[in-house]
Structure prediction request, 159 residues.
Amino acid sequence: MRTMETTANAIHVSGFKASMEPHQNPRPTVGKFMTRVAHTIGYDQTLQTAEGIMRKYQIRHLPVLKAGRLIGLLSERDLKIYRGFEELELDELFASDTANEPAYQVPPCTPLIEVVREMANSKFGSAVIVENGIVQGIFTAIDAMGALIKILPTDVEHP
Prediction:
């Protein structure tokens, strides 16, 4: 049976001890682990343009904006699907026609556990981080793995 005891700056769980400094937030937020968005695409741009941006900057998700507001999300997977149809030309399809709408979006102050739980339950590959209507970043399954590496204790002995 696992037990948990909290003392001033430590949590003891079944013999494991995780130190919590006073400045540490016991509920990390998604904003701490998101990847800042440097690239977006307008709703009226072609998928060929989107593909070029993704290749050039080696990114797999591209927020789609209209008048500066998020309207959807294009992923590398989406482009591969459209690329597979011989009758479709990427220079004839627009971001607004193909973006996943609505994109799952949360503010950066959202607790990480809430975002990860929703992504897992809904089988979302990512969340767009939006504050005051402006895209701030993206949080992907890869970012979630990075968060686990930073959060989980590394000094625990494995049985």
Remarks:
- The beta strands are 4-7, 10-13, 16-19, 35-36, 41-42, 61-66, 69-75, 105-106, 126-131, 134-140.
- The first strand starts at residue 4 and ends at 7.
- The chain is about 30% helix and 30% strand.
